[in-house]
Protein: LacI family DNA-binding transcriptional regulator
Amino acid sequence: MGVTIHDVARAAGVSVASASRALSGRRKVTPEIAERVSRAAAELGYQPNAVAKALRDRTTGTIGMIVPGIGNPFFTTIVEAVEHQLQETGRDLLLCASQYRPDVEARRLETLLARRVDGLIISPCDIEASVPAVLNAARRVPLVQVDRHIEGGGADWVGVDDDSALAQAVGHVAAGGARTVTFVGSRLMNSSARSRLSGFERAAARAGVNATAPLLGEFTLEWGIEAGRLLLLDGETMPDAVVCGNDEIAVGLVRALRAGGVRVPDDMSVVGFDDVGHATMCDPPLTTVRQPVEEMAAEAVRLLGQVRVSDPRPAQRIAIAPRLVVRETSRPVAAGGANGTEMGRGTA
Structure:
């Protein structure tokens, strides 16, 4: 049998109540008693009963997190960043993947709620179909959305400023001489896919470049390869540059273009989005928009500490500005041009 609070109290020569108060820190005891109890606990190797503490405090010290899939390097990176932030506050992370399916996402939410998590951080997989389950969970525990969000908001959100990101990407390729630009992204099932396409269209109009019909599939390497093959079929009508919805698409696209005899960036510039995992492993290294993952994670955890269930305040939206990282898949900026990079943080 393990060491109990009774053993600590006996060794310290105090009552069980005094030992409990000294160890919990919820009620003050004299410095002498605190020292005696602390020394006795250390000598005996006493470990508090986490279950009893959770029942007493009505907390579990755990935060649930749901992402669409951990195979995507971006989600792996944001999960690691959130876990690091939680560790700083002594909390643990319970992670689930929705497998890009709203029905699975709803079941994962119920599982985490049954585990009595103190709060939830979620990147909803579907902007519309995820709404009922996310709103239901937000009525039961503090909840913050990260990266993606549901239609109409409904809960606090932290993500990247997609308008700034696409303005930098399009501005950069335009400054490098591109006059015709294609966007390759994901079908419009989630908020990131929608906001990046709309951000591209606005940026292209401001930059005065010709935006061809977008190619929309999945946020995957395989779709990038397929999109590259589709561009190769167009032959002489290929664009001067391609801006991609994430790095996985961009890496697949570069691979397909080079296999088809297109020189990157001499014949076509390619810009990705995320700057995680694949970007530096691309051949040549990928020019991309870097998401401020650490800052996003810190803001998400900070907001989670502020959220109160049934709080009438409007949901907060924090959009953090990214930074363009220029490598070798884009043409150099033409003389007198500007690459459109910027740094900073804003609210949306």
